[in-house]
Amino acid sequence: MKVYIATDMEGISGIVHGDQVSPGTAEYADGCAWMVGDVNAAVHGALAAGATEIVVNDSHGSMRNIDPGAIHPKATLISGSPKPLSMMQGIDASFQACILIGYHARAGTEDAILDHTISGSVVRAIRVNGIEMPELGLNAAIAGYYGVPVVLVSGDTAVCRQATEILGKDVVTVAVKEAIGRQAAKLRPLSEAQNLIQAGVKDALNKLVAAKPFKFAAPYRFELDYHISAQADMGAMIPGAKRIGARTLAFTADDYIEGFRSLRAMINIAPAR
Ligand SMILES: [Zn+2]
Prior knowledge:
This protein is of the alpha/beta class. The chain has 2 domains: about 1-120 and about 135-210, 3-Layer(aba) Sandwich (Rossmann fold), CATH 3.40.50; about 220-270, Gyrase A, domain 2, CATH 3.30.1360.130. Helices cover about 30% and strands about 25% of the residues. The strands form 2 sheets. The protein has a 7-stranded mixed beta sheet with strand order 3-2-1-4-7-8-9, with helices on both faces. Strands 6-5-10-12-11 form a 5-stranded antiparallel beta sheet. It is globular, with a radius of gyration of 18 Å. It binds zinc ion. Zinc ion binds near residues 8 and 9. Zinc ion binds next to loops.
């Protein structure tokens, strides 16, 4: 069994503030250590369920947060950025399951640690086929494109709620903290949170037969709301983008991965507000 683990940082056990996920701050090293803790807990759970190959994609910010010397030696680490599939680089049809560790709620969610969607300074909202999506939905559809189901999501209670809404009640969720606003949370003790992740991953992989890949219905209509119109001025230069509002672009793709790439180009070309 091949298991793919994508890890973001805002939803890692212990993390409540942007300084803890940003290089160059006094607290960043602690955040990285906690991230390795949650990831290794997931690796242990996967090994206990019989995984024979595990790939971990570091997918926050620079995507160089995980110390290659600290990750479990049975896992292969994908480090660095940019990558064509970004937070899902390395996934393909050879995997049986996808696990999302350290995830956060979509931009504009109340009581959610560091809520945003892909880029806090650029994106106000992303809709696919009319439904507003957090990163977990956009990325689960990449796994789904390759026929791989997302079987577990960890993060705060808000992202766990959104995971169940989008992926259905069968996805295992592990809430490692409960937010009190955007930058404060009631934390589970780290050891307890990591034990829950390990047990959750083992449990999710043991009942894998019931898991279904997540897919949107084709063709895929993407809508991107920027924060300001100057960002849409730039994004509208990408071929295929239609300006449907001062701050909003829309486009339709027949292939989800192509659509995802266009979306990223429209985000990356826009200046930070
Ligand atoms: Zn992140």
